[in-house]
């Protein structure tokens, strides 16, 4: 790896941040672009090569079906006294404002502890997020309460679990660094 490669990846890592659907502009994320981003996700580290990540990509008409399903589940599983019409509408709207929404699914192999499969899947999402950020595609990972009721809709197997959704869209927000405490506060050296 060259010094320029290091500078590039360091810049992308430090400027990756959550970009929400309200900031997305109307611009298609093509299947080819999504395949390139998901190919980066697929390069994540994985113990015993279980490669537990699975992705279900919603675009175009699929976004409408997902928006309807999430809103319907919110309504069905929220007690009447806690139901908010605004939240119901926002649930639909943020899906429909997105260029794509990807369901993040982990497939437990039984070959390694479940936490390792979760960690590998999270690494895959981080790869996806960094690649999207480099392509000026904003995104964020959301795990709404309805996620635990999505198995049938997503047609996932008994050994699989939906961990949430990665909302994506092109945007015009200016780049900014993430707000983090100094790394020195999180390190103990044992020289």
From TrEMBL:
Recorded GO MF terms: oxidoreductase activity
Keyword NAD among record annotations: yes
Cofactor(s) needed by this chain: FMN
Listed Gene3D superfamilies: NADH Oxidase (3.40.109.10)
InterPro entries xrefs: NAD(P)H_nitroreductase, Nitroreductase, Nitroreductase-like, YdjA-like
Regions annotated as coiled coil: none
Domain of life from the UniProt record: Bacteria
The Nitroreductase domain, residue ranges: 14-170
UniProt keyword list: Flavoprotein, FMN, NAD, NADP, Oxidoreductase
Similarity field: Belongs to the nitroreductase family.
Name under which the protein is recorded: Nitroreductase
Species of origin: Parapedobacter luteus
């Amino acid at each position: 790896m060259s010094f320029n490669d290091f500078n590039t990846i360091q810049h992308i890592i430090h400027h990756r941040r959550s970009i929400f659907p309200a900031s997305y502009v109307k611009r298609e994320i093509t299947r080819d672009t999504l395949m390139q981003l998901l190919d980066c996700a697929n390069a994540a580290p994985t113990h015993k090569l279980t490669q537990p990540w699975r992705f279900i990509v919603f675009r175009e008409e699929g976004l409408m079906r997902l928006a309807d399903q999430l809103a319907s589940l919110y309504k069905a599983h929220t007690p009447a006294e806690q139901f908010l019409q605004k939240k119901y509408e926002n649930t639909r709207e943020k899906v429909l404002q997105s260029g794509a929404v990807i369901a993040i699914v982990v497939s437990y192999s039984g070959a390694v502890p479940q936490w390792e499969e979760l960690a590998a899947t999270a690494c895959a999402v981080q790869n996806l997020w960094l690649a999207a950020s480099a392509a000026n595609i904003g995104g964020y990972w959301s795990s709404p309460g309805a996620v635990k009721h999505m198995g049938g809709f997503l047609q996932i197997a008994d050994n699989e679990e939906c961990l949430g959704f990665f909302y994506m869209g092109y945007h015009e927000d200016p780049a900014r660094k993430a707000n983090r405490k100094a790394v020195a506060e999180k390190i103990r050296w044992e020289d």
